[in-house]
Write a structure and sequence with these properties.
Largest sheet: 7 strands, mixed
Radius of gyration: 23 Å
Distance between the termini: 58 Å
Helix content: 25-40%
CATH topology of the largest domain: Creatine Amidinohydrolase
CATH superfamily of the largest domain: Creatinase/methionine aminopeptidase superfamily
Amino acid sequence: MALELDAPHFGRHRPRIDPSKRPATGTSWAELGPGDLALGEWAALGLERPDLDAMRRYRLDRLREGLRARGLPAMLLFDPLNIRYATDQTNMQAWCAHNAVRYAFVAAEGPVVLFDFHNCEHLSGHLPLIDEVRPGIASAWFFAGERGPERAKAWALEIDSLLREAGGRDRRLAVDRLEPETAAALEDAGIEVQDAWETTELARRLKSPDEVRAMRCAVAACEAGIAAMRDALVPGISEQGLWAELHKANIARGGEWIETRLLSSGPRTNPWFQECSSRVVERGDLVAFDTDLIGPYGYCADISRTWVCGDGTFSAEQRGLLDIAEAQIAHNIALVGPGVSLREIGEKAFVLPEGCRKNRYSVMMHGVGLCDEYPSVYYPEDAAVSGYDDVLEPGMTLCVESYVGFEGGSQGVKLEEQVLVTERGIERLSTYPLRDPGR
C-alpha cells in the first residue's frame, strides 16, 4: 500500500495527515541529528548548522528548474545520491548503489513519488517534500530470476501511469540508470528515455548557503578524523589500522561512508591509486591519503594530505616532492574565481616537471557536493579527449588536486584542497595544514 505524506500534492496524491496535526516521529537518524560529539565540536569552531527544510526545498527546486529548462515533464532517478539530492531520503546507500530497488519519480509540475525497498515506507515520515511512498518493483535477476521481464513490464506500467499524469501526451522521461529489462519495458510502453545526468549534475553544480553550511560540518568531521589518524601514526601501525581511524571518526560524528580505500605508505605511494593494505608503516615512510569521505548530512569532504611517519621530518627527496605539490595547489587555487572558465584554468595551470607528467592525477580540479561532481578540469594531455568548458560561479564548490611522483620513483605526494567559489574569489573549506604538523 502506498503511503501518502503531507506536502504540496498533485492530482490524486493527497495527504492523509493534516500537516498541522502531523506529529514528528523523532526516531529517524536525520531527526535525531549527528550527536553531541559533532555538535560540540562544531559549536567550538563557530559553525552554523544547515536549515534542512530550506536545503531540501532548494535542491528539489533546482531539479524542477532543470526539467523545465529542457522542456521535460519528469525524471526517474535510481542513483542513490540523485535520490538523496531530490528527496533527502537515505536507505542502505551503498547496497542500493548496486541493487536497483529504490527509485524516485520527480515531475516538473507534479508529485515526487519515492519507490522504496520492502517495508521501508516509514523511513520517509519526516520528509514533507515526498508526496507519496510506494513499494519498489525490482526486476534484476537477484530479485526476479526468470520473471525479470514480467516484473519489468509491471514496473513500466506504473511509471507510464505517473508520466501520463505529469506530462499528458509528452512521452519523454529523463532517467539516470536503467537495467536492460527496464529499458526495453519503457520502450515497449512508448516512453522516450532522455539522459537525466545533465539535469542532475547541473542542478547540483550550485550550492545553496545551507548546503555550504552542511559541507563545512562534513569537512570539520573529516578533519577531526584526519587529526585522529595523525595521532595514531606511529611506526608499526598498518595502513588499514590507520585508515580505520578515519572511518571511526566519521561514523561517530554522524557521517555515512568513505568512497575509496586510498591510503598508502612508503614505496606504495608511487604510483598513486593503490588501495589501503596490511602493510606495516615504518619510520621515515611517507603516508599519503585521499579521504573521499561522505560525512554528516551526506556531504563530501574530499581532502588529501601526505605525512612522514615519525617526528614529521621529511628527507630531501620527500621535501622536494612536497614542494612541487604545494606549488601546484597554490598556483591552481589562485586561478579559481567567479567568471573564470574551465578552459582558462587549463591553459594557465601549473606545469608539472616532465618526469612527473606520466603519473599525473586524473584531473586538476573537480566539483564536489554529495560526492565528486561536475565539473572537471583536465590536464592538457587529456583535454583533447575529455575536456569541456564552463564558467565558474559563486556557490560552486571544487577540489583542487595534486599528485607528484616521478616515473619509476619510489615515493609520491598527494595533496587536495576543498574550496568554495565566492563573489570575490574563493574560501578554503579545508583547513588542516598542508604541511605535516608532526607529533
